[in-house]
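Hi both,

Apologies for the delay on this - the queue was longer than expected. I finally got the magnesium ion-bound model through. Below you'll find the protein sequence and the ligand SMILES exactly as submitted, and right after that the structure tokens for the full complex including the ligand.
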Amino acid sequence: MKVLVLAGGNSSERAVSLNTGAAIGAGLNRLGHEVLAIDPATGRTLLDSSGTFLTADSAGNSNLPVAPVSTEVAVALNTGGLKEVDIVFIALHGGAGENGTLQNLLELCGKKYTGSNMRASAVAMDKALTKRLMATANIRTPDWLLFHLDDAGATPEMVDEITARFTCPFIVKPNESGSTVGLTKVERYGQIPAAFVEAAKESRHVLVEEYIHGRELTVAVLDGEPLPVVEIRPKSGLYDYEAKYTKGKSEYIVPAPVSDSVVVEIQEAARKLYEVIGAAGLARVDFLMDDSGLTYCLELNSLPGMTNLSLAPMAAKAAGIDFDQLLERIIQSGLRRRD
Ligand SMILES: Nc1ncnc2c1ncn2[C@@H]1O[C@H](COP(=O)(O)OP(=O)(O)O)[C@@H](O)[C@H]1O
Ligand SMILES: [Mg+2]
């Protein structure tokens, strides 16, 4: 098959996406597919002359255009070489690649692609909306408030509302983002304005959440079926950008050493959330478990990382599905899409 990998993009998760793209590209080669790879932010190929993926450094990370999908890519999808592509493998994280924009473009172009459709991607990218859906599906989620920011940042009224509702510590994070970018664990109320400034760099909507102290668990879901639970033990305490993407900064345990009832509870919650969101292919649902054993759902990632440190491939492996088989399953499910 001729597979076009889209990786890079102009979101804050660009570097991670380039790693995901390289891992996927190598796997697709091993599977015998013909691989093309393009960075939608620049319209340029991501393969060097020998067909090897460019690294995050060589792909060029400065002077990226503001448009999330370059005109070149939009045009190329319907003309020239890309017309023959059997499926587009989306290896983007954050921004237009994950929030449904690109999925919509591909639908308009009549192209098959992997993963969730436009609607599910847009819902999953909106953490507050996802939390509202969790409430309807009886899935526990940390208490929260959502604010829409104008240019003034955190107003005194917002600060009052937060201090009336939450005791420190609590979490301030962008409503639409990923990779823990723009997230602050607020230890003193005085930090609220600065935390809002950080979150607002990523999204106009800022989520304030009760802090859950405990363990970090995640459940990948493939074609509606939950995979074994992975526990993440970040050495620094918070599962932040560095802990996520630097080898040795986190310890991963799969299957997670938690009781069978916790496994059943969060696998069921993950399956239900995947279903109410209408996700497709591979997704990953993040949870926290507090010291008393209560589990809280944080979000669904519609485009989970696929690097060699990533959680979903780790979970798949524990279920007997190796990385290349996982890619093939994702492709087959993209080809079967009927919506
Ligand atoms: N309410 C919370 N309580 C404690 N830790 C949190 C909370 N929300 C987020 N975190 C920490 O930040 C990480 C990223 O948060 P998450 O909501 O999954 O956003 P994303 O992964 O999209 O950046 C979590 O894995 C966890 O380590
Ligand atoms: Mg997360």
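Main takeaway for now: The domain at 144-210 is CATH 3.30.1490.20 (Dna Ligase; domain 1).

I'll put the files on the shared drive as well.

H.
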